[in-house]
Specification:
mainly alpha; 15 helices
Amino acid sequence: MKNPSRGIRSSGEPSPLPSVLADTAPQQWTPSDRAVAAQRQALDWLHRHELAPDARIREQIEGIHVGAAFVMLFPRAKPEIQELASDVFTWITAFGDVLVDGREVRDRDFTALMLQLSELLHGTSGAESGTGFAAALVDILHRSDDLLPPEHGHRVRQALNSFVMTQNWHVNTLANGLRPALAEYVVARRHLVGGWALIALLGPLEDFRFSARQYRDPQAAELNEAACNLLAWLNDLRSYERESRAGDAELTLPSIVMRDRNCTAGVSLAIVAEMCDAQTADAQRLTARSHADGDREMADYGELVCGLMGHIAHWHTTIAADRYR
């Protein structure tokens, strides 16, 4: 794996925002009527499946505006695909906020649920009725099977399965007081934020205009990894202050960089900011290479991923800003 902390300032001076965030901070979030309707649908789905009974946590999940975001970011997508993507990320966000955050032991109920979800994702368990995370996942999988070609549906299942399995890693790491290496955490974090689920849904959200190269080409793999990294690292960067106040920052990128580099919090935040900028630069470099090589399909895909990375930054500074205060 490439060095995740490549591109760090030699001076170690604190940087409040990576360039990708500073460049997008002044932008405003103005949802369209369709985006407002999609957001309402996402909240109805969250409530219908009773994923967040606690009012404070429910408000926290509602504040990310995933329903509106997928409509605004992917206007050419069919509404039912936008809704599927929105519900996938509502489920992912609720899972982390409700079931994992603050959990320090894998109790019997949590272990049983993880096994149940694994069976559902493997296709070896029957339908679940009622409410809760298993029933909501069944709804997602049924709609995915109905809406997506088999290869795309399989990728969504794979991404959600890796998400569930890495949540086990997360809870086990906290429960046993483990201190993962930086490289190990970087790999895990891409799964924990649902990065690979987003990549799996890109093709459907773009109305299937890309071939299988989107997932198989080595250059596309680098682009996909860069987008997942940026999503994960910006999340950790923006939430660090809030999590520090709550005493929940031990398993975050800034804390792990502090241990890895034996540095202060301010220097660590600067390092993480530089890591974010390096991922953005890598994606832009790969896209420029595709343009220079006359590889139109990969250049178009690179432009999509670079645009997505910019929107990820915009989302963290405007759309979901209240979540990180």
